[in-house]
């Protein structure tokens, strides 16, 4: 579903290679965890995946659609939860969700069903009529997630989705991510919380200085080191001084 072919992203006229010759394939039915220290290139990779940034070299395909050549078809398949919440402060939560549903042309029945289900799940029903500017960080994160998934896209792309969520909401989101994959869809998310990645993911990639340093199932990543935790692997494979988790 998600394919990166020799993708390079340079910033600052080439002085920074935030993503350096990245090759990645994420199939259907997979929860894929993308982990790495601060500044490793996770957010840049996700912005390339969602078409917000264009590669300096190489190409990104979503469901076989080239993001550069066929952006509308590629983007239609994706629900994207960014790492910052640039929401419209003056809208109420409900107005925001209806706005997102309009953008994605979600019909009245489907939007109602989706909005009711997720407001209930995240215990946001009472706040839905309030302006977003009164929301806490966690509430904004929940609203962003509900809005991003409103068109029920097959591919979920989430940048550090657990940040700001309380343990209960984080647990519910993880269950939803699992369920989405079990229905044959795809979830790609970044995290620096290694325990989350270890428990939730079918496959994991570790990125450092814009390069993949490991990729595969937990078993494959352990490379025969019986009992090695993801933390052990992470510390071995990335610069010790850059570790943040
Ligand atoms: N807009 C930008 N301009 C220049 N450099 C950037 C920009 N965005 C990110 N970088 C640099 O690219 C590298 C990767 O950043 P990022 O993708 O945000 O990493 P992560 O999400 O893993 O923390 C870092 O060195 C960062 O400083
Ligand atoms: Mg980031």
Number of DSSP helical runs: 9
Mean pLDDT: 91
Overall shape: globular
Instruction: Indicate the low-confidence ranges by residue numbers.
Output: none
Outline the biggest β-sheet.
6 strands, mixed
Approximately how much beta-strand content do the residues carry?
15-25%
Protein model, in words:
The protein is of the alpha/beta class. Helices cover 36% and strands 25% of the residues. The protein has nine helices and ten strands. It has helices at residues 42-49, 71-76, 93-103, 108-121, 137-148, 167-182, 194-200, 218-222, 230-237, and strands at residues 2-11, 16-26, 31-35, 57-62, 65-66, 78-81, 155-159, 186-191, 203-208, 211-216. A six-stranded mixed beta sheet has the order 6-7-8-3-9-10, with helices on both faces. A four-stranded antiparallel beta sheet has the order 2-1-4-5. Strand 1 (2-11) and strand 2 (16-26) form a beta hairpin. Helix 3 runs parallel beside helix 5 (137-148).
Secondary-structure map:
Elements: E1 2-11, E2 16-26, E3 31-35, H1 42-49, E4 57-62, E5 65-66, H2 71-76, E6 78-81, H3 93-103, H4 108-121, H5 137-148, E7 155-159, H6 167-182, E8 186-191, H7 194-200, E9 203-208, E10 211-216, H8 218-222, H9 230-237
Parallel strand pairs: 3-8, 3-9, 6-7, 7-8
Antiparallel strand pairs: 1-2, 1-4, 4-5, 9-10
Helix pairs in contact: 3-5
This protein binds adenosine-5'-diphosphate and magnesium ion.
